[in-house]
Task: inverse folding
């Protein structure tokens, strides 16, 4: 642990927990503390789409908002950009909308 080698701020010393969001009728997405929520949700929706299921944009945005609100550091990544705009993967892999 890095805090044994040097003095740490309280937020550095606290070990962040995994976070799990349940998509109704679709499954759960669990993120490690170092995973970036927008990118993970995009990957999850893409994987679901490949199985024939789909997540609508509102549900995907709700998941990202929940993950970001649940993280001590949020999702700002040190910028003033919105969560979605801060991640270039959003433009490369847009959320797949449920067209049913």
Result:
């Amino acid at each position: 642990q890095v805090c044994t080698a040097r003095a740490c701020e309280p937020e550095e010393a606290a070990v962040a927990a995994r976070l799990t969001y349940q998509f109704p009728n679709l499954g759960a997405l669990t993120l490690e503390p170092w995973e970036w929520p927008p990118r993970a949700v995009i990957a999850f929706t893409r994987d679901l789409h490949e199985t024939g299921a789909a997540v609508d944009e509102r549900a995907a945005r709700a998941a990202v908002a929940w993950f970001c609100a649940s993280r001590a550091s949020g999702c700002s990544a040190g910028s003033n950009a919105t969560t979605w705009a801060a991640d270039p993967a959003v433009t490369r892999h847009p959320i797949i909308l449920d067209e049913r």
Summary: Confidence is low (pLDDT under 50) at residues 79-86, 91-100. Residues 49 and 67 are 21 Å apart (CA to CA). The beta strands are 19-23, 27-31. DSSP finds four helices and two strands in the chain.
